[in-house]
Amino acid sequence: MSIANINASAATLTKNRTEDAVCSLSGMCATCVDGCIGMCEIGKSAYRGGEIIYPQPYGIITAAAEKIYPVDLTHFTIFGTAVGAKGIEADSDKAIFPKVDLEQRIGKDKGLKVKLPLIIPGLGSTAIAKRNWAELAIGAAISGIPLTIGENVCGMDVKSEIVNGKVEHSEDLEWRIKLYQDWQQDGYGAIIVQANVEDTKLGVQEYAISKLGVDTVELKWGQGAKDIGGEVKITDLKKAQLLKKRGYIVLPDPTDKDVIAAFEGGAFKEFERHSRVGMVTEEGFLSRVKELRDFGAKYIFLKTGAYRPADLARAVKFSSKAEIDLLTVDAAGGGTGMSPWRMMNEWGVPPVEIFSLLYKYLDRLAQNGEFVPDVAIAGGFTFEDQIYKGLALGAPYFKIIGMARAPLAAAMVGKTIGNCIAEEEEVPIYIKQFGDSVAEIFVTAPELKRKFGKRFDEIPTGAIGLYTYLQRLAQGQQQLMCGSRKFGLEYITRDDIAALTKEAAEISGIDYVMDADKEEVDGILSG
């Protein structure tokens, strides 16, 4: 089933006039009436045009596709067992779920350590990321997971000092990096600086390495939400003109006198800033990795999007040849910033399919004795069961899971609760059942207060919200793994899950539930 032919969505603030009678082929109302004011996407596009390509309102939302894919992670089940234990003594008094070890080490030298098998991928120049950066940075740092600073931060920073086309200072980038570093605990996690085409031209990663103490950088080939460059909205004319001067694609042209007049007259209120698409070559990729290593980068990552299988193969092969430290593959369907809505629904390889292809490509390299980089996968992960299934689907090659929208949601909720408390507003009744203060509402507050002492008061409630959410995921993951008798991430295997449909089994190579354990079953019953 698919609802891809949508003509109305909360994402574009549109709706059908005949909501109960909609054509499944076009998404239009069954009866389109002359005289309608145009609340649907077609109608709204008739007077706002290209503005309706993107989810709205920009800057305070994240968005994900409404399309229902033929196969998803719910089409798999997690196997448990009543026998033995791996990674701990098979003793009922010792093999308890809090003993499950969720720490992971990644990188070619395994020098990057994380408390949980999670990473927050690139959150860059979009307003939603900037508005919630303190919450994300501190929350990720105290949780011991890596956080990636996404594309275009320096280019979007109006205070950036750019000399001869290269960034010399960026207040925004420095603030983002130092905020994470100031709260990093015992060397767990990492702050990663990502770069797209414009960032590379500006020398952003070189600046971060040489002046801001960054040792982990990430190259970028697109993302799961879109197959073009990143976009943001700009409400300030002077800023739009500055970004055009810096080389960005800005629509409409903020230097055109007619456009300026239209903007000042209120005909439109936002400019669009677009990044360029990259042009990947093996030679160029290997050369850039070498440049960064020579410049002092200790760890180099690559993030790629939901491109066609041949591009996924290029990402795997090039990453192997360059011996990079982490390859992140983002599946189709979602985004944290501004992505074209129809593109978000209708382009790219979906999660189960791209993860299954990725496993096959990595396994082929391994069988040939070639270097296999550590891998992260991303694409709609929110809870512990999905994390377990994702890791099992690509075991032993998938090491960590990328999550952006869900951590951001947790941070925003925590921030909202904190604002109510700080402004002495009435705490919503749904939350008031737990109390009126930070210490009462956030279940991890006492733990954090013991750990950080007086510094606890400096932790934003959004960061507490993120930390608390991640601790829930950790406990849930421990319980699932304990049920499978796997007491460390390295013991997760592909047969820890089973496909619930023949189609899921065919796509993934995971055993159909009715075919699982056949040989063992025969041995037991014949004994």
Structure description:
The strands form six sheets. Strands 5-6-9-10-14-15-17-18 form an eight-stranded parallel beta barrel, surrounded by seven helices. The chain has a three-stranded antiparallel sheet with strand order 11-13-12, with helices on one face. The chain is built from 21 helices and 19 strands. It is globular. It is an alpha/beta fold. Helices cover 39% and strands 14% of the residues. The model has no long low-confidence stretch (mean pLDDT 94). Helix 3 (133-143) runs parallel beside helix 5 (171-183). The chain has helices at 41-48, 127-131, 133-143, 153-156, 171-183, 197-202, 204-211, 237-245, 257-264, 282-295, 309-322, 341-346, 351-367, 384-393, 405-422, 429-432, 438-441, 445-452, 461-483, 502-508, 518-526; strands at 63-64, 76-78, 104-106, 112-114, 118-123, 147-149, 161-163, 166-169, 191-195, 216-221, 231-234, 249-251, 271-274, 299-304, 326-330, 334-335, 375-378, 398-402, 497-499. The two termini are 46 Å apart.
Question: What's this, in brief?
Answer:
It is built from 21 helices and 19 strands.
Strand content: 5-15%
Helix % is 25-40%
Largest sheet data: 8 strands, parallel, barrel
| Rg (CA only) | 24 Å
Uncertain residue segments: none
For the record, give the distance between the C-alpha atoms at the N and C termini, rounded to a whole number: 46 Å
Mean of the pLDDT scores? Answer: 94
Number of helices: 21
Based on Cα principal axes, name the global outline: globular
Based on DSSP secondary structure assignment, what is the total number of beta strands? Answer: 19
* Biggest sheet: strand arrangement: 5-6-9-10-14-15-17-18
Find the structural class using helix and strand composition.
Answer: alpha/beta
